[in-house]
Amino acid sequence: MSKVGIFFGTGFEEIEALTVVDLLRRAGIEAVCISINNANEVVGSHQISVRMDEGIAETDFAALDMIVCPGGMPGTRNLEACSILTEQIRKFYESGKLIGAICAAPSIFGHMGLLKGKKACIYPGMEAELLGAEVVFDEVVKADNVITSRGMGTAIAFGLEIVELFTDKETAEALGKKVVYKLS
Questions:
Q1: Are strands 41-43 and 49-51 parallel, antiparallel or unpaired?
Q2: Contacts for 170 with CB less than 8 Å, ≥ 6 apart
Q3: What range does the domain containing 119 cover?
Q4: What is the CATH number for 45?
Q5: pLDDT tens-place string over residues 47-105
Q6: How far apart are CA 151 and CA 53, in angstroms?
Q7: What is the distance between the alpha carbons of residues 59 and 22, in angstroms, rounded to a whole number?
């Protein structure tokens, strides 16, 4: 079974993080909620507390097939300040393993120099943070092993893109229909 780590820092955007977790689990993909500060619960940007599966200190990164960074503020800044996470993002990127970010979080990849020459998208108004990228305004962009998305309103499209990568297009489309999401 594929395994995806969704990383939570205080101030994460709840819908972006939990939509991905929900869709992956519905598709039979193991989605692990991981706290970057090793807390049992992390509070989002709208004061919603979410119970974690594990802390980053106990995470076996070798067992993960993908790292996902939800947006939100100050959640994105907290993720970027976590050296364990950014070191692993770089290792995943360099080894060709999947990394994904939504809303403000693609800025992490931009600041790390991982988007040079790649198409990428981000929350409106933050395009300058995609250093070296070819900025596009699609809901979701996949460029090699990097997936980016624009925000809360694109969370289902982002989650379904990840589902498709670990299953197939038919499975993602069927799940989209099941959750009454209009696929384009």
A1: antiparallel
A2: none
A3: 3-177
A4: 3.40.50.880
A5: 999 999 999 999 999 999 999 999 999 999 999 999 999 999 999 999 999 999 999 99
A6: 24
A7: 20
